[in-house]
Design brief:
By secondary structure, the chain is mostly helical. It has helices spanning about 5, 20-35, 35-50, 55-70. It is built from four helices and no strands.
Length: about 70
């Protein structure tokens, strides 16, 4: 929601999954619990992304979320 589409890059700095998909949530949590290197990479990539983030990107993410809901 909001800027998530801009800030979260699948398997680069986080995971996106459908609301209520407990299987995927469980799988992704297990990946993070077992993968200390993956957590470090996620952290590094997140810092790179947020360095270039501004409210302009946040607003764009909000409108992208609205467009998705309208489908």
């Amino acid at each position: 929601v909001g800027a998530a589409a801009i800030l979260i890059q699948q398997d680069q700095n986080g995971y996106v999954f459908k609301v209520g998909d407990v299987k995927m949530l469980s799988y992704y949590l297990e990946c993070l619990v077992q993968g200390s290197e993956k957590r470090k990479l996620f952290s590094k990539k997140s810092l790179e992304i947020i360095e270039n983030f501004s409210y302009r990107e946040d607003i764009a993410g909000f409108f992208a979320a609205l467009a998705y809901v309208k489908k």
